[in-house]
Amino acid sequence: MTLPRPTQEFFSIGEVCALTDLKPHVLRYWESQFRFLSPAKNRSGNRVYKSREVELIMLVKHLLYNEKYTIEGARQRIEQYRRTGELKGQASRAASRATLREVREQLDRIIQLLDGKEPSEPA
After folding, report:
1. 59-88 burial code (b ≥16 CB/10 A, e <16)
2. pLDDT greater than 70 at residue 42
3. What is the pLDDT of residue 102?
4. Which residues pair with 41 in a beta bridge?
5. Could you tell me which of 107, 109, 82, 17 has the C-alpha nearest to residue 54?
6. pLDDT tens sequence across 54-91
7. pLDDT of amino acid 4
8. CA-wise closest residue to 13 among 52, 32, 41
9. Of 63, 81, 79, 80, which Cα lies nearest the Cα of 71?
10. pLDDT value at position 6?
11. How far apart are CA 20 and CA 97, in angstroms?
């Protein structure tokens, strides 16, 4: 389950996984594929993500999973956003879309319960 848009400054990999509904190995792989995803590490060597990086992860997820881009295609699209100055806005929209999708799924489950039906599993 994803959580509302992040408001704290730093996130552990576990928190990012909860926010983005991704597995840690996916985040680590994306770090190797997208140079802008390079979280700092704390004294213990654990990844520490900034809220801006979480938004970028949501943008990558949107491009790969919803828009069906390849890794290379997503890289090129993000570079295009960066060149045109649209990157920040697109990253924010991706995070907002994910939150809205989560809310919609929860509302659908509530409606099913109110109608006396077994709620279906989220997609």
Report:
1. bbbbbbeeeebeeeebbebbeebeeeeebe
2. yes
3. 77
4. 47
5. 17
6. 999 999 999 999 999 999 999 999 999 999 998 888 88
7. 54
8. 41
9. 63
10. 47
11. 12
> Starting at the edge strand that comes first in sequence, how are the strands of the sheet with 47-50 ordered?
10-11, 47-50, 40-41
The residue count of the chain comes to: 123
Of 95, 90, 75, nearest in space to 34 by CA? 75
Q: Where are the alpha helices (DSSP H) in the chain?
A: 13-20, 24-33, 51-61, 71-84, 87-114
For the residues 43-61, what does the mean pLDDT come to?
92
Burial status of residue 14 (CB atoms within 10 A of its CB: 0-12, 13-18, 19 or more): exposed
Residue 73: CB partners within 8 Å, gap ≥ 6?
A: 63
- pLDDT value of position 17: 93
Rounded Cα–Cα distance for residues 96 and 20 (Å)? 12
| Average model confidence (pLDDT) across the chain | 86
